[in-house]
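Hello everyone,

My group is preparing for a crystallization screen and wants a predicted model to guide construct design. The compound we'll soak is S-adenosylmethionine. Before spending weeks at the bench, it would help to have a computed complex in hand. I've included the protein sequence and the ligand's SMILES below. Output in structure-token form would be ideal because that's what our pipeline reads.
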Amino acid sequence: MEVRIKMSAVETSEQYDYDGTYKLGEQPVHPVVLDALKGVDSQLHPGDIILDLGSGPGRLSHEAPTVNAYFIAIDGDPEAVRQYNESASSRGSSDRAHHGDIRQLEQTLSQTGVDRRRLRGAVFHRVLHVLDPQEQVDVLKQTRRALRPNSTIIVTSAADDDHKAQALRARGLYSPDAVNNCAPVMSGLPEETTFFGVHFADEKHLKNLAKSSHLRLRNQSVRRIRERSGYSDATNSYIFAEFQTPGRLFYAKEKLLDSTVRRVRRRP
Ligand SMILES: C[S@@+](CC[C@H](N)C(=O)[O-])C[C@H]1O[C@@H](n2cnc3c(N)ncnc32)[C@H](O)[C@@H]1O
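Reply:
Good plan to model first. Here are the tokens for the complex, ready for your pipeline.
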């Protein structure tokens, strides 16, 4: 029997086994991601914030300690959040995780009481692909609105040459435009009947995401990287890219447009 797990904030805990997988220190973060983070961090001022969205138990906080900024993390799994905060506190780090759904980023951020004027970067490391393409655009738009102008968003999303995509293709189960259930081709899963959803991307998808979310894509940044899976010895393939939020003028125009639309809507 297949158990379909929807990726809501409370239910992600059933998909990721944080007691058995994703142990901090056992899975190095790819150097390309670490370098990108260093680049962002070096441009920030003490007290600035980088969002770690879908953080898990805090690999980035653990392995990419920031110098000038700190991480505010959001994850839908309470156990991941607990492990994140325990580890950060034990290292004397100011990084903090909050429980929430990244699809409701704006709401989650207001609940955390974070100083939004300090939000100057965001990372989606191995998480955006759990969302369907329209949700990805939606989350990126919310992230753009939350961040200051000219901030960087680092994305690592499952790529279409990943071993799971290839295994699904071989079985005639692969869909390029939707979230695929990879559970049947993932032997390392604790519960083989789980719905393990992944949307596989190519370079064109990342370009389209940038366009639809009104972000600039640093074209030179787009590349394929490989990182070990959290479940087995397999190596996963990801597309890495850096997005940039637009300048002040765009935000001013967007604000003006929003308030005009609201005024028109209020008219009897
Ligand atoms: C593959 S893990 C990656 C964790 C971490 N970024 C890393 O690379 O080590 C994906 C994480 O995203 C979280 N997640 C998935 N969907 C989410 C959602 N809608 N809201 C918040 N967190 C979510 C899961 O709970 C899980 O911890």
